[in-house]
């Protein structure tokens, strides 16, 4: 059964088998720790030193577009003042910051590692 990339990115799953987890359970003292490799297909998650620097740009893009979307909603639909809309938008982004960073890493590794449906059944590869 092929799992969608639209499932595996937000659910933080391995890009190769789309079953294993990229991250362990969230621990506040180590929020960005990742598994070294997938427990299902053994795909390495750190492909090279500094690999996730590119995820910074994805994180920035997600944050910026989300903030602009919230500002548009708050200003145009709800008719809030700019200051109130901006402050609430920043608070919401702050609350979801760790998830946004994890999503950006998931998107980044999905650019470079392709899905292989054989990995689910043939785990010894």
Helix and strand layout, with pairings?
Elements: H1 5-8, H2 55-77, H3 82-95, H4 97-112, H5 118-121
Report on this structure.
By secondary structure, the chain is mostly helical. It has one domain (5-121). The protein has helices spanning 5-8, 55-77, 82-95, 97-112, 118-121. Helix 2 (55-77) runs antiparallel to helix 3 (82-95) and helix 2 (55-77) crosses helix 4 (97-112).
Summarize the structure.
The protein is mainly alpha-helical and 125 residues long.
What are its keywords?
5 helices; 49% helix; 125 residues; mainly alpha
Number of E strands: 0
* Number of structurally distinct domains: 1
Structural class: mainly alpha
**DSSP strand content:** under 5%
Number of helices: 5
Radius of gyration: 17 Å
Helix share bin: 40-55%
Note the run of SSEs as H and E.
Answer: HHHHH
Q: How would you sum up the global shape?
A: elongated
Compute the average pLDDT.
91
Given as residue ranges, the uncertain stretches (5+ residues, pLDDT < 50) are none
What distance lies between the first and last C-alpha atoms, to the nearest angstrom? 19 Å
Biggest sheet character: none
């Amino acid at each position: 059964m092929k799992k969608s990339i639209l499932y595996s990115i937000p659910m933080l799953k391995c890009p190769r088998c789309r079953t294993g987890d990229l991250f362990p359970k969230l621990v506040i003292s180590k929020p960005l720790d990742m598994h070294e490799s997938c427990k299902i297909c053994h795909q390495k998650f750190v492909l090279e030193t500094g690999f996730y620097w590119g995820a910074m740009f994805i994180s920035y893009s997600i944050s910026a577009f989300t903030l602009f979307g919230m500002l548009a909603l708050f200003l145009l639909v709800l008719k809030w003042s700019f200051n109130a809309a901006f402050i609430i938008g920043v608070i919401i982004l702050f609350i979801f910051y760790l998830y946004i960073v994890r999503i950006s890493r998931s998107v980044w590794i999905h650019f470079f590692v392709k899905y292989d449906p054989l990995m689910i059944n043939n785990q010894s590869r």
